[in-house]
Amino acid sequence: NAGVTQTPKFQVLKTGQSMTLQCAQDMNHNSMYWYRQDPGMGLRLIYYSASEGTTDKGEVPNGYNVSRLNKREFSLRLESAAPSQTSVYFCASRDTIRGYTFGSGTRLTVV
Amino acid sequence: GENVEQHPSTLSVQEGDSAVIKCTYSDSASNYFPWYKQELGKGPQLIIDIRSNVGEKKDQRIAVTLNKTAKHFSLHITETQPEDSAVYFCAASITSGSRLTFGEGTQLTVNP
Protein backbone atom coordinates (compact mmCIF):
# COMPACT_ATOMS: atom_id res chain seq x y z
CA ASN A 1 0.00 0.00 0.00
CA ALA A 2 1.94 3.03 -1.30
CA GLY A 3 -0.41 5.77 -0.02
CA VAL A 4 0.32 9.03 -1.87
CA THR A 5 3.07 8.99 -4.49
CA GLN A 6 4.59 12.18 -5.88
CA THR A 7 6.95 12.55 -8.82
CA PRO A 8 9.51 13.90 -9.32
CA LYS A 9 11.20 14.27 -5.92
CA PHE A 10 13.53 17.05 -7.08
CA GLN A 11 13.42 19.44 -10.04
CA VAL A 12 15.36 22.49 -11.18
CA LEU A 13 13.70 24.76 -13.73
CA LYS A 14 14.76 27.87 -15.51
CA THR A 15 12.50 30.91 -15.30
CA GLY A 16 9.77 30.61 -17.90
CA GLN A 17 9.91 26.83 -18.26
CA SER A 18 6.85 24.72 -17.64
CA MET A 19 6.41 21.44 -15.81
CA THR A 20 3.81 19.16 -14.28
CA LEU A 21 4.01 17.65 -10.83
CA GLN A 22 2.34 14.27 -10.62
CA CYS A 23 0.40 12.84 -7.68
CA ALA A 24 -1.38 9.52 -7.32
CA GLN A 25 -3.13 7.88 -4.36
CA ASP A 26 -4.24 4.29 -3.97
CA MET A 27 -6.56 4.71 -0.96
CA ASN A 28 -9.73 5.42 -2.93
CA HIS A 29 -10.02 8.89 -1.37
CA ASN A 30 -12.35 11.39 -2.97
CA SER A 31 -10.53 14.57 -1.96
CA MET A 32 -7.02 15.57 -3.00
CA TYR A 33 -4.94 18.67 -2.31
CA TRP A 34 -1.82 20.52 -3.40
CA TYR A 35 0.12 22.52 -0.81
CA ARG A 36 3.33 24.45 -0.94
CA GLN A 37 5.66 24.71 2.03
CA ASP A 38 7.90 27.71 2.53
CA PRO A 39 10.08 28.50 5.57
CA GLY A 40 8.12 30.24 8.31
CA MET A 41 4.85 30.06 6.37
CA GLY A 42 3.61 26.58 7.06
CA LEU A 43 1.59 24.75 4.45
CA ARG A 44 -0.46 26.88 2.09
CA LEU A 45 -3.20 25.42 -0.07
CA ILE A 46 -2.77 25.95 -3.81
CA TYR A 47 -5.67 23.96 -5.26
CA TYR A 48 -7.89 21.13 -4.17
CA SER A 49 -10.30 18.64 -5.66
CA ALA A 50 -13.24 17.56 -3.53
CA SER A 51 -14.12 14.77 -5.93
CA GLU A 52 -13.30 13.44 -9.36
CA GLY A 53 -14.19 16.06 -11.96
CA THR A 54 -14.06 19.09 -9.64
CA THR A 55 -11.26 21.48 -8.73
CA ASP A 56 -11.19 24.68 -6.68
CA LYS A 57 -8.70 27.39 -5.83
CA GLY A 58 -7.03 27.56 -2.45
CA GLU A 59 -5.09 30.40 -0.83
CA VAL A 60 -2.30 30.79 -3.40
CA PRO A 61 -3.50 29.60 -6.85
CA ASN A 62 -1.83 32.23 -9.05
CA GLY A 63 0.66 30.76 -11.50
CA TYR A 64 -0.67 27.20 -11.17
CA ASN A 65 -3.23 24.97 -12.84
CA VAL A 66 -4.47 21.53 -11.84
CA SER A 67 -6.08 18.51 -13.42
CA ARG A 68 -8.00 15.77 -11.64
CA LEU A 69 -7.37 13.13 -14.24
CA ASN A 70 -9.34 10.40 -12.44
CA LYS A 71 -10.02 9.43 -8.85
CA ARG A 72 -6.40 8.40 -8.27
CA GLU A 73 -4.46 11.21 -9.95
CA PHE A 74 -4.24 14.95 -9.33
CA SER A 75 -1.55 16.90 -11.18
CA LEU A 76 -0.21 20.43 -10.66
CA ARG A 77 1.12 22.42 -13.60
CA LEU A 78 3.37 25.45 -13.67
CA GLU A 79 2.94 27.06 -17.08
CA SER A 80 5.74 29.63 -16.79
CA ALA A 81 7.88 29.05 -13.71
CA ALA A 82 9.06 32.01 -11.63
CA PRO A 83 11.68 32.15 -8.84
CA SER A 84 8.84 32.86 -6.37
CA GLN A 85 7.59 29.33 -7.06
CA THR A 86 10.72 27.83 -5.56
CA SER A 87 9.26 25.70 -2.78
CA VAL A 88 8.51 22.22 -1.56
CA TYR A 89 5.22 20.95 -2.94
CA PHE A 90 3.09 18.38 -1.16
CA CYS A 91 0.14 16.45 -2.46
CA ALA A 92 -2.36 15.00 0.00
CA SER A 93 -5.53 12.97 -0.06
CA ARG A 94 -8.15 12.85 2.66
CA ASP A 95 -10.07 10.26 4.57
CA THR A 96 -12.85 11.78 6.70
CA ILE A 97 -11.92 9.56 9.64
CA ARG A 98 -8.12 9.40 9.48
CA GLY A 99 -7.55 12.85 8.03
CA TYR A 100 -4.92 13.78 5.49
CA THR A 101 -2.23 11.51 4.05
CA PHE A 102 0.66 13.42 2.52
CA GLY A 103 3.12 12.43 -0.15
CA SER A 104 6.84 12.81 0.43
CA GLY A 105 7.06 16.07 -1.50
CA THR A 106 8.67 17.60 -4.58
CA ARG A 107 11.49 20.06 -4.00
CA LEU A 108 11.37 22.61 -6.83
CA THR A 109 13.99 25.24 -7.54
CA VAL A 110 13.42 27.90 -10.18
CA VAL A 111 16.54 29.76 -11.26
CA GLY B 1 -11.36 32.60 6.44
CA GLU B 2 -9.63 30.69 9.20
CA ASN B 3 -6.27 31.90 10.53
CA VAL B 4 -4.07 29.67 12.70
CA GLU B 5 -1.09 31.02 14.61
CA GLN B 6 1.52 28.71 16.16
CA HIS B 7 4.18 29.38 18.80
CA PRO B 8 7.05 29.01 19.27
CA SER B 9 8.66 28.70 15.86
CA THR B 10 11.62 26.84 17.37
CA LEU B 11 11.87 24.88 20.60
CA SER B 12 14.91 23.15 22.05
CA VAL B 13 14.63 20.81 25.04
CA GLN B 14 16.77 18.28 26.85
CA GLU B 15 15.93 14.61 26.48
CA GLY B 16 13.40 13.64 29.11
CA ASP B 17 11.94 17.12 29.47
CA SER B 18 8.45 18.10 28.34
CA ALA B 19 7.66 20.20 25.26
CA VAL B 20 4.59 22.35 24.71
CA ILE B 21 3.50 23.93 21.43
CA LYS B 22 0.56 26.33 21.33
CA CYS B 23 -1.84 27.37 18.58
CA THR B 24 -4.65 29.89 18.34
CA TYR B 25 -7.38 29.98 15.72
CA SER B 26 -9.77 32.68 14.57
CA ASP B 27 -12.91 30.94 13.28
CA SER B 28 -15.24 29.97 16.12
CA ALA B 29 -16.92 27.49 13.74
CA SER B 30 -13.78 25.31 13.68
CA ASN B 31 -14.33 21.99 15.41
CA TYR B 32 -11.48 19.74 14.32
CA PHE B 33 -7.85 20.25 15.38
CA PRO B 34 -5.17 17.82 14.18
CA TRP B 35 -1.44 17.85 14.81
CA TYR B 36 1.12 16.69 12.24
CA LYS B 37 4.76 15.69 12.62
CA GLN B 38 7.13 16.22 9.72
CA GLU B 39 10.49 14.50 9.76
CA LEU B 40 13.31 15.71 7.57
CA GLY B 41 12.69 14.99 3.90
CA LYS B 42 9.24 13.54 4.48
CA GLY B 43 5.65 14.66 4.29
CA PRO B 44 3.66 15.56 7.43
CA GLN B 45 2.06 12.68 9.31
CA LEU B 46 -0.96 12.88 11.60
CA ILE B 47 0.01 12.15 15.21
CA ILE B 48 -3.09 13.15 17.18
CA ASP B 49 -6.29 15.10 16.70
CA ILE B 50 -9.06 16.49 18.87
CA ARG B 51 -12.64 17.49 18.22
CA SER B 52 -14.48 20.31 19.92
CA ASN B 53 -16.61 18.08 22.09
CA VAL B 54 -13.48 16.95 23.95
CA GLY B 55 -11.21 19.08 26.15
CA GLU B 56 -8.20 16.78 26.24
CA LYS B 57 -6.93 13.69 24.47
CA LYS B 58 -3.89 11.54 25.26
CA ASP B 59 -1.93 8.95 23.34
CA GLN B 60 1.03 7.61 25.29
CA ARG B 61 3.52 10.51 25.62
CA ILE B 62 1.47 12.90 23.51
CA ALA B 63 -1.53 14.92 24.63
CA VAL B 64 -3.58 17.71 23.12
CA THR B 65 -5.75 20.18 25.02
CA LEU B 66 -8.44 22.45 23.62
CA ASN B 67 -9.97 25.61 25.02
CA LYS B 68 -12.83 26.57 22.71
CA THR B 69 -13.71 29.69 24.69
CA ALA B 70 -10.24 31.11 24.25
CA LYS B 71 -9.83 29.55 20.80
CA HIS B 72 -6.54 27.90 21.50
CA PHE B 73 -5.18 24.37 21.60
CA SER B 74 -1.84 22.90 22.61
CA LEU B 75 0.35 19.86 22.01
CA HIS B 76 2.17 18.39 25.00
CA ILE B 77 4.98 15.87 24.61
CA THR B 78 6.30 14.32 27.83
CA GLU B 79 9.57 12.43 28.37
CA THR B 80 10.92 13.70 25.08
CA GLN B 81 13.31 11.54 23.07
CA PRO B 82 15.73 12.45 20.25
CA GLU B 83 13.38 10.82 17.74
CA ASP B 84 10.75 13.42 18.66
CA SER B 85 12.92 16.00 16.87
CA ALA B 86 10.90 17.21 13.88
CA VAL B 87 8.68 20.03 12.65
CA TYR B 88 5.21 20.00 14.20
CA PHE B 89 2.19 21.62 12.58
CA CYS B 90 -1.17 22.39 14.12
CA ALA B 91 -4.23 22.81 11.94
CA ALA B 92 -7.92 23.63 12.17
CA SER B 93 -11.05 23.00 10.15
CA ILE B 94 -14.79 23.02 10.59
CA THR B 95 -15.06 19.25 10.32
CA SER B 96 -12.61 16.40 9.83
CA GLY B 97 -13.78 16.34 6.23
CA SER B 98 -13.18 20.05 5.56
CA ARG B 99 -10.09 21.79 4.24
CA LEU B 100 -7.39 22.30 6.83
CA THR B 101 -5.70 25.60 7.65
CA PHE B 102 -2.20 25.03 9.02
CA GLY B 103 -0.07 26.94 11.49
CA GLU B 104 3.44 28.03 10.55
CA GLY B 105 5.14 25.06 12.19
CA THR B 106 7.47 24.52 15.18
CA GLN B 107 10.94 23.04 14.81
CA LEU B 108 11.42 20.87 17.91
CA THR B 109 14.95 19.74 18.76
CA VAL B 110 15.50 17.23 21.55
CA ASN B 111 19.10 17.26 22.74
CA PRO B 112 20.53 13.97 24.06
Oligomer: heterodimer
- Structure summary, number of beta strands of chain B: 11
Distance between the termini of chain A: 36 Å
Order of helices and strands of chain A: EEEEEEEEEEE
Gap from first CA to last CA of chain B = 41 Å
Q: Name the helicity range of chain B.
A: under 10%
The coarse silhouette of chain B is globular
Proportion of strand residues of chain A: over 45%
The main β sheet of chain A shows up as: 7 strands, mixed
Main interface pair? Answer: A-B, 24 and 22 residues
Estimated radius of gyration of chain B: 13 Å
Which tags fit this structure?
heterodimer; A: about 110 residues; seven-stranded mixed β-sheet; four-stranded antiparallel β-sheet; B: about 110 residues; mainly beta; six-stranded mixed β-sheet; five-stranded antiparallel β-sheet; about 0% helix; about 55% strand; globular
Summarize the entry for a quick read:
The complex is a heterodimer of chains A (111) and B (112). With 111 residues, chain A is an all-beta fold.
Secondary structure elements and their pairing?
The complex is a heterodimer of chains A (111) and B (112).
Chain A: E1 4-7, E2 10-13, E3 19-25, E4 31-37, E5 43-49, E6 56-57, E7 64-68, E8 74-78, E9 87-95, E10 99-102, E11 106-110
Parallel strand pairs in A: 2-11
Antiparallel strand pairs in A: 1-3, 3-8, 4-5, 4-9, 5-6, 7-8, 9-10, 9-11
Chain B: E1 4-7, E2 10-14, E3 19-25, E4 32-38, E5 45-51, E6 56-59, E7 62-67, E8 72-77, E9 86-92, E10 101-102, E11 106-111
Parallel strand pairs in B: 2-11
Antiparallel strand pairs in B: 1-3, 3-8, 4-5, 4-9, 6-7, 7-8, 9-10, 9-11
Describe the structure.
- The complex is a heterodimer of chains A (111) and B (112).
- With 111 residues, chain A is mainly beta.
- In chain A, 0% of the residues lie in helices and 53% in strands.
- In chain A, the strands form 2 sheets. In chain A, strands 2, 4, 5, 6, 9, 10 and 11 form a 7-stranded mixed beta sheet that branches.
- In chain A, strand 4 (31-37) and strand 5 (43-49) form a beta hairpin.
- The mean pLDDT of chain A is 94.
- Chain B has 112 residues and is mostly beta strands.
- Helices cover 0% and strands 54% of the residues of chain B.
- Chain B is globular and about 40 Å long.
- The model of chain B has no long low-confidence stretch (mean pLDDT 94).
- The interface between A and B is medium-sized, with 24 and 22 residues.
